[in-house]
Amino acid sequence: MKELNVGLIGAGFMGKAHSLAYAAMPMFFWPAPALPVRRTIAEATESLAEEASRRFGFQRYTGDWRTVVEDPEIDVVDIATPNHLHAEIAIAAAKAGKHIISEKPLARTSDEARAMYEAVTEAGVVNMVAFNYRRTPAVALAKKFIDEGAIGAITNFRGTYLQDWSADPDSPLSWRFQKAIAGSGALGDIATHVVDIARYLVGDLAEVSALLSTFIHDRPLQSGGADSLGTTRGGDGPRGPVDVDDEVMTMIRFTGGAVGSIEATRNGYGRNNYITFEVHGTKGSIFFNYERRDELQVAFADDPGDRRGFRTIYTGPAHPNGSALWPIPALGIGYGETKIIEAHDFFTAIAEGSEVSPNFRDGYQTALIDDAIVRSGETGAWVRVPTVEAPVAAGASSSRR
Ligand code: NAI
Ligand code: SOE
Q1: In whole numbers, what is the pLDDT of the chain averaged over residues?
Q2: In the CATH scheme, what is the homologous superfamily, with its name and number, of domain 137-332?
Q3: Which of 162, 164, 184, 189 has the most ligand 2 atoms within 8 A of CB, as the residue to mutate?
Q4: Could you tell me which of 6, 2, 74 has the C-alpha nearest to residue 31?
Q5: In 162-204, which ranges are continuous DSSP H helix?
Q6: What pLDDT score does 195 carry?
Q7: Taking 70 as the threshold, does the pLDDT of residue 28 lie above it?
Q8: Domain spanning 3-132 has what CATH number?
């Protein structure tokens, strides 16, 4: 079985999730498309990298990500750093001929995302952006129902991503509140996942009308590399400015004519990872809530009147990727499984020399939507979303699945 050497850059929350996925992927998907070898891990310093290599099972470590990109033995570069490093690392990795998976958002701005898309297109390497929520089996099942016409022509998509980890004004000023590092706030961090799901399920967006707000204007400075995601309190120490949005709400119009809305906040007490979507069609509706991620609710117009309403399907072996996961519906999947499926699909594309989705073209298209949302928030006007042109070289077209 072919082995692929992985160089992972960034050993925080996503470093953990991706390492777990590389270790576990062949245990779930067997025979594996190729075996991931956890070769080298890079962190901001050599000592962080050394510790991460022991924790996450990597053979080598480095305090300089360029070592990974320049190593001829590395096949795959995995970018799990804060957003400001995605473009520089991905462009260098593409030039070095590496296959690349980058965490979301692909970049801070659509200009950066375009440069990344052009670099992988030019290099012809397999590329993926890690919008893993679409790999939740219930979300893929929603896609299957929609593609089969089970709920008819789509008229409305309502999506939310609500969290509360930063609702406390004394939770620390992580990199996620700094425009120079993150690019934007709730928009790029979490709304962008829902934008990806909206595109996956319904199609491309034509225009947006948005409102972005910031309610907490400064926060206590945070020490240490990895984001504490609100698990620590800053206390009375020095504070720094928040220069990104706390909250985003946007109306959307799809190119196919459907309408809808997307909302996101990280300050909604009581909501934790409340990714929801409700899709209405001419023949039925679908509802999903990630906090109950094994369930998909469906309602069909042709159900008899005395029993019409939402019914719950528990995902299991009969559903997308289900046969690789657990043998009985409702045994339950976790966040980790979405990353395992993501790693499987990425490695399959490398092994087969095919494309995977969402790829950098999708990440660039999503960045164009995010930029349009920002512009609409600034001007108060509806803003049209440009469409990414067809690929200019082999290996870059978007094939959604
Ligand atoms: P984190 O703050 O937990 O970890 C980032 C790590 O990168 C830290 O350990 C930091 O020391 C390291 N780092 C910083 N500069 C570096 C450098 N020059 N070289 C090597 N390592 C460096 O952040 P987290 O939550 O892991 O986020 C990383 C990326 O993943 C972000 O783009 C974020 O948006 C994305 N993300 C995606 C999620 C998803 O569900 N797909 C979930 C969480 C984050
Ligand atoms: C914080 O809001 C965060 O870690 C996001 O960065 C991720 O993308 C999301 O999946 C979980 O929450």
Answers
A1: 95
A2: Dihydrodipicolinate Reductase; domain 2 (3.30.360.10)
A3: 189
A4: 2
A5: 179-182, 186, 192-201
A6: 98
A7: yes
A8: 3.40.50.720
Tell me which of 14, 139, 160, 190 to substitute to probe ligand 2's pocket, judged by most ligand atoms within 8 Å of the beta carbon.
190
For ligand 1, atom 16: residue with the closest CA: 44
Task: Please give all residues whose beta carbon lies within 6 A of any atom in ligand 2, as ranges.
Answer: 163, 189-190, 229, 266
Please say if the pLDDT value at position 193 is more than 70: yes
CA of 371 to the centre of ligand 2 (A): 19
State the pLDDT at residue 399.
37
| pLDDT tens column, 73-93 | 999 999 999 999 999 999 999
Which residue shows structure tokens 């001007």? 379
How far is residue 124's CA from residue 349's CA, in Å, rounded to a whole number?
12
Backbone angles phi, psi at 179, to 5 degrees: -55, -40
Instruction: Delimit the domains of the chain by residue range.
Output: 3-132, 137-332
pLDDT > 70 fraction of the chain, expressed in percent and rounded: 97
Nearest protein Cα to ligand 1, atom 18: 44
